[in-house]
Design brief:
The complex is a heterodimer of chains A (361) and B (190). With 361 residues, chain A is of the alpha/beta class. In chain A, 43% of the residues lie in helices and 19% in strands. In chain A, helix 11 crosses helix 14. Chain B has 190 residues and is α/β, with parallel strands linked by helices. Chain B has 6 helices and 6 strands, in the order βαβββαββαααα. Chain B has a 6-stranded mixed β-sheet with strand order 2-3-1-4-5-6, sandwiched between helices. In chain B, strand 4, helix 2 and strand 5 form a beta-alpha-beta unit. About 4% of the residues of chain B have low confidence. The chains are: A alpha/beta (361), B alpha/beta (190). Chains A and B meet through helix 8, strand 8 and helix 11 of A and helix 1 and strand 2 of B. Strand 8 of chain A pairs antiparallel with strand 2 of chain B, so a sheet runs across the interface.
């Protein structure tokens, strides 16, 4: 049994990193995720577990520190918010190409550009469809509570090392800033050098005379090898898609109309479901937990069961709706509803949108 | 039981920490809680507000548009939140600096002169504790002993020695709130 605490989402993320035995955090402060590095600095993790925490000179530096530490088989994390994440994209593409495991958290704020510091979900495309160059994916986990901010750090590291890829925790200003009760797991020990050497034969742990060279790079000018490398990445992504899709269904058993929402929007839509049910509407909520890979089959199965329409609720002008529509494939109606600019939709207006756009009165 | 509360005032009045104490107290009573602040420019002076939900069930939306109780500590917040109290709900405000009093007739309105009382006690820092005490008298959603526990958990350890001084205004306020009630609650319609 862990320890019960009242924490902000950002603090929970940071504490979970210490407790799951992370080796390093490199980051640069930006609202609304500055509490991550503030909390880590305050906690002296180097004294608690030997975890290194460093405020890099920029986001670009931080992501390249992550690239290096991950290549050495270390459990390394970084975090930022939208404009900072843009700066990290080159590094993230290199990390994907070089198959370096790492966890990065994006506490999304409004855009484009410097935008606003208020919550937003308008970086769905950036994180699920790329952001950097090349044919790559990061696993994207979308926490909808402070507890999940904590739980997804160890889960993210497990996935990152299982598949040798970057796992993105896609949060937003609301989840990052809100406080809720959270159960923190027991402290886990960091891996020793020997354990890393034994477990990760690809890791750069220092070459000795007589041992083979290990190279971690995203560059290969041999076209045939590069094509095979890309094919290999795609096979890996197919495996992730087959094994790692996660979602939650709320009141979907007899639902005729379903909200699709993740993160803070899912919390709001859950209230809309309650309001709708109280008014006699058969509404439910599908909450994708992995945004890549996307729970396409869950949507298909709901249509098979008789769902007549979906409303994608996001703090954006309509991004996840594209994945909902691909899953619907024209079989039933699907529409988008969302507020932007830092304004957060209320449960009432979300329900109203469902009535107007999908159910039709 | 679900109590949806907005606490709103100026930055520096202790709005956010009052919400935190309330949330911690809720946890001590085995409730589900959420604490959702306004952040950013508000933290740097100007208005600050926090939505606290204390419930027996998992909290859905931490962001709300209608509240069971509004605790209002300045005019801007009164203007913004008076209309957002659910009919039959509660509005508790400090008249200090209020030029336009609340006018709704379908909610319970109470005033507590927290700023004045804190100044009478010679300790302006306990202002938010007076307000919290008044709120808990109006809406006794959490037992006293759990509020004390919540208080201990949310105050940093260095402040624990001042605990008796912090606790006193909490109890005091309960007395004052009743003599300053403005509108009697209307009898509910059949």
């Amino acid at each position: 049994m862990g320890e019960l605490k009242l924490m902000k989402g950002n603090e929970a993320l940071a504490e979970a990193a210490i407790r799951c035995g992370a080796d390093a955090y490199f980051g640069y402060p930006i609202t609304p995720q500055s509490e991550v590095i503030e909390y880590l600095s305050e906690q002296n993790p180097y004294e608690r577990t030997g975890m290194v925490v460093l405020q890099a000179e920029s986001e670009v530096a931080a992501i390249n520190m992550v690239y290096a530490a991950g290549a050495a088989g270390k459990r390394v994390m970084t975090s930022s918010s939208s404009p900072g994440v843009c700066l990290k994209q080159e590094g993230l593409a290199y990390i994907a190409g070089a198959e370096v495991p790492c966890v990065f958290a994006d506490v999304v704020r409004g855009g484009p550009g410097l935008g606003t510091i208020q919550p937003s979900q308008a970086d769905y495309f950036q994180n699920t469809k790329g952001g950097g160059n090349g044919d790559y994916h990061n696993i994207v986990l979308a926490p909808a509570s402070v507890q999940e901010m904590a739980d997804f750090v160890p889960l993210g590291f497990d996935m990152a090392f299982k598949y040798r890829m970057c796992v993105c925790i896609l949060s937003d200003g609301a989840i990052g800033q809100m406080m809720e009760k959270v159960i923190m797991p027991e402290q886990k020990a960091r891996m020793t050098e020997e354990e890393i050497k034994a477990k990760y034969p690809w890791a750069l742990t220092g070459r000795k005379r007589g041992t083979e060279h290990r190279v971690i790079t995203s560059l290969d000018l041999d076209s045939a090898r590069m094509e095979e490398h890309n094919r290999h990445l795609q096979r890996k992504y197919a495996e992730v898609t087959a094994n790692e899709v996660r979602y939650e269904m709320i009141n979907c058993d007899d639902a005729e109309y379903v909200f699709v929402a993740y993160g803070s929007s899912a919390r709001i839509a859950q209230k809309s479901v309650q309001l709708g049910r109280a008014a006699g509407l058969k509404v439910g909520l599908l909450r994708p937990i992995t945004l890549w890979p996307y729970p396409t089959k869950a949507i298909e199965s709901l249509i098979d069961k008789g769902v007549k329409g979906f409303l994608s609720v996001e703090l954006s002008c309509g991004q996840m709706i594209e994945d909902v529509r691909l899953a619907c494939n024209g079989r039933v109606k699907s529409e988008h509803f969302g507020r932007v600019g830092g304004i957060i939709h209320t449960p009432e207006e979300v329900l109203e949108a469902m009535k107007k756009q999908i159910i039709g009165e | 039981m679900t109590e949806e509360i907005i606490i709103a005032g100026f930055g520096g009045q202790g709005v956010l920490s009052m919400g935190k104490i309330l949330a911690y107290s809720g946890i001590m009573q085995d409730k589900e809680v959420s604490w959702m602040p306004s952040y950013g420019p508000e933290m740097r002076g100007g208005t600050a507000n926090v939505t606290v939900i204390v419930s027996d069930e998992r909290v859905c939306s931490p962001i709300l548009n209608a509240f069971d109780t509004a605790v209002i500590l300045n005019q801007q917040s009164l203007d913004k939140f008076e209309d957002k109290v659910k009919p039959g709900g509660y509005l508790l405000y400090d008249p200090n600096g209020i030029t336009k009093k609340p006018t709704r007739k379908d909610i319970h309105i109470y005033s507590i002169e927290g700023a004045q009382l804190a100044s009478d006690m010679g300790n302006s820092k306990v202002f938010n504790m007076i307000i919290l005490g008044a709120f808990l008298k109006l809406r006794p959603i959490i037992d006293n002993k759990n509020v004390e526990e919540g208080l201990r958990h949310s105050l940093p350890e260095r402040a624990h020695k001042d605990f008796p001084n912090t606790k006193k205004p909490l109890d005091w306020a309960a007395f004052f709130v009743f003599i300053r009630k403005r509108f009697p609650p209307r009898p509910s319609r059949p």
